[in-house]
Amino acid sequence: MKLHCELKMGAMLAMLAGLLMAAQSTPAQMSTGKEAAESIATHGYVVATKAMKGSAIPAEYTLVLTRDEIYVPIIIRKPEGPGPFPAITMGWGEGREGMKKVEDLSERLAAMQERMLARGYVVATVNYRNEIPYEYEHAKPPQNLPDSISGERRMLKSGPTLDHEDLIAIIRYLQSLPYVDKNGVGAMGVSHSGEMILKASSEYTFGAGVCIEPAAHEFLTVDTGPTAPRKDNEIQFNDIEVVRKRANKAAAMERIRRMHTPILIFGRETDHQQGVFKLTYEWMKEAGKDVSWQSFDHPVHGYVFIFPQKDGSYKPDEIQAKTFELFMEYFDKHLKHTQAAAR
User: Fold this and answer.
1) Which residue has the higher pLDDT, 38 or 136?
2) Helix (H) or strand (E) holding 255
3) How far apart are CA 249 and CA 269, in angstroms?
4) Domains annotated on the chain, with CATH
5) How far apart are CA 97 and CA 103, in angstroms?
6) Could you count the other beta carbons within 10 Å of the beta carbon of residue 72?
7) Quick check: 122 and 78 in contact, CB under 8 A?
8) Helices 163-176 and 33-41, interaxial angle, to 10°?
9) 313 CB neighbour count, 10 Å cutoff
10) What is the model's pLDDT at position 95?
């Protein structure tokens, strides 16, 4: 059975390669400037559709083309019907392990996503390339540039593509789908994936973001060097004043001022980075941004994502049940407004 699945996936990937070669010679790929950049950002292929255990709603294994024309893996599930539906991306931590990570996370979130689907949302479990440490802190928002070297019509890059740009490409791909409301796409992410949403929203505006314990060191340009307080090998940034002294406010506020996406931040009282979460909220509030704050005393990192119990059952605790309603009501407010207006 495993060999059969591997052969089937290999055949699909071979077919995909053929489609990609054909796509490279089409007129749409020969355009330049902003038009070409946007056409690249919304390009993707569904390479497989698989059943999801315990659900009648299948999962679409999809590859999305990024700014530098490589593919990142996502898994999309949608409610029945033509839509258009609002959509939410869901990510955890740093980018690694490709589609394997997306598949594992999608399976662990299946029961939680089932309830989001029932509320009329498309859900996309996402992944992206791994980060280049500290590159973001001195990088500028990138651009695709017309070819000035070979005389051909390829696209050149103004700088390296970073992981948060993959999230932007995914959001733009979702906005291009006929069953998705392009004005109703949001993102939620835990830890590094929470910081990804902050970085992405500083360069691209979308419906709403929910940042769960966002590890926003680079976004705030916090000094994490040898003098940072540590316990064993873990940085101790629970105290907001410790973080404030080590952060570059001018750099952070320059990024924050570019943001126009509503953001909900979830903190965790005992987390060793609670000060980072709080300072992100404080400086966004100071800049007059649409930002909200919720914080709970919970023993589990990423507690807003509800994973199954050891026996496979879906049993969110009291805090998790509350946070689910909080972020869903937040998304309802910001992502379903066009539907409400239509009614």
Assistant:
1) 136
2) helix 249-257
3) 23
4) 31-342 (3.40.50.1820)
5) 10
6) 25
7) yes
8) 80
9) 8
10) 84
Element (H, E) at 157: strand 155-157
Sole residue written with tokens 């949302």: 121
pLDDT at res. 6: 42
The pLDDT value given to residue 26: 29
What is the distance between the alpha carbons of residues 227 and 261, in angstroms, rounded to a whole number? 34
Quick check: bond before 84 cis, omega within 30?
yes
Residue 211 has which token pair? 């940042």
Q: In sequence order, which residues have a C-beta less than 8 Å from that of residue 160 and are 6 or more positions away?
A: 68, 132, 135, 139, 142
Cα(89)–Cα(76) distance, rounded to whole angstroms? 9
H or E segment and range at residue 78: none
Structure tokens at 202: 């500083």
Dump the DSSP string for 225-236: STTS-EETTEE-
Structure tokens at 142: 């990138």
Tokens standing for residue 68 = 């530098």
Two tokens, residue 131: 């980060």
Does 41 score more than 70 pLDDT? no
Residues 125-137: tens digit of each pLDDT: 999 998 887 888 8
The total number of residues written for the chain in this structure: 343
